Records
---
Amino acid sequence: MTDEAPKTLKSHGRLSISASLKPRDLMEEPFRVKGAWKAKIITLFPDAFPGVLGLSLTGKALDMGLWALETIDLRPFGIGKHLNVDDTPAGGGAGMVLRADVLDAALTKAAEGTSQDRLRWPIIYLSPRGRPFDQAMARRFSKADGLTMLCGRFEGVDQRLLDHHHIEEVSLGDFVLTGGEIAATALIDATVRLLPKVLGNQASTEEESFSHGLLEHPQYTRPAVWNDLAIPDVLQSGHHGEIAKWRQTQAEEITKTRRPDLWQAYLRRKS
């Protein structure tokens, strides 16, 4: 297993450096930002990454070394001639379950160079039965040194693995995907954009949806009139106090109408 382990690493961006058996020209070493946030992803489909994370602002930040991405291919940790990573469910039932011993080996590899403190380095399993992912969780993850994500497949993973490693289960919502890769991409994107210097304008993250418990107010831009629809006068008044009041009122009305659950939580926090 140790001979195969280096093959499981796939680095993305300028910050991630994996071990190599071949001499490397020092001039080709990727730039590393000290203390940069890092995501480690255990997956059967490492080629799914970086995907859209390599584009736009997250991609630019990845290239600049503001964060790092490392994929760990689960398959080489598999058992037997065919490198099996799953088996039938105990007690019977449809589908297959990812094996605890296989995942444990992959997590051991992923743990190299990371903190054992789960506040500094959470381990996440993307699961429809997990706690709903929200902006507060994204902010918590962005304050950590990094995180490890386990992308499930099939019917799930052996519960003993989750219990042994104190893995936090996180869900994107009340629906089921074929695997955790899409969910991991969304979670990373929501977290990375909160890192310093990634967006360039930190104030923008303070005004958007969920930042203060409300959905975001409507946005407008030029032209001032489009299809006989005009930008609200208050937004063109130059009166910043009135603009702020209008945006607050709009955010409250939208939240009350579209997300009664968020509205009630907002009212409880205010009282």
---
Amino acid sequence: MIQTNLRIILIFAVGCYFILILLFLKRKALELKYTLLWILSGVVLGAFVIFPQLLVYLVRMLGIESPMNGLFVLCIGFIIIILMALTSIVSRQTMKIRILIQENAMLEKRLRELEEAGRKHTDMAKEEGKC
């Protein structure tokens, strides 16, 4: 079982965790779709802190020796899941940025070609006017 003073500290930490997430959402530092995983992990860990019997039951099912070790394993598991999700997001953003850079380069080339054609056209018109 989790000691009372540790439980109070963990409840306070989970509360601060949710306040921090809500502040990030309010300041639009995080998008809602990316925040859902953080909120889910906070709810699960908060439930285990508030109702330690759930943690003890899960730890026994998994064959882990101590409830605190089980809590650490759950935290590490959530961290790995969040890191995988963030890595996926970064990979997708990298691909989108690469495509945008390529499209931008093609548009710049096309613009240069059109400007060059426009210059040639005006130069020819000026020469015809002088003749």
---
Amino acid sequence: MRFDVMPVATEKQMTEIEETARYVWHNYYKDIFSPEQIEYMLHQYQSKEAIKAQSGKGYIYYMLMSDGALAGYTCVKLEKDYAYVSRLYIKPEYRRQGLARRTIAHFNAIFSSKEHGLDYIKSLKLKVERNNNFAINVYEHLGFQKIKSVDTNIGGGFVCREYVMERKVT
């Protein structure tokens, strides 16, 4: 399997990410969030307009390609000494094929190399719902550790109860 991480640069690609988000979130989060919260979060965070706005605030979206097909997407934001992995979603039919591992390895290679000028990034951090056992297990397998719990009011009457997880760049 050929795996590529491709930056999202065009409106068409943003639309593809929006459609992928809708597909993945309704498939995956149906047992974690209410349909109303899923729709709220998709509109607030994963609509084409939201993606465009986030891109203007330092978030960098990438398409995860498997043999030329869109298999998922990720998003990072560079902070003072860490990269915040804001999104990492894989379509159901591409799960359990090592794409999350390859994505994290891709980031690790970029942030550990002086060649890219990003070697000031010392760790990757992300948030994951505390009752999302599948994702927690995946992240722990990839070397992430829980460092704290946070409850975030995201508006619309919804709260996300998450672990912040961290993995050192090696």
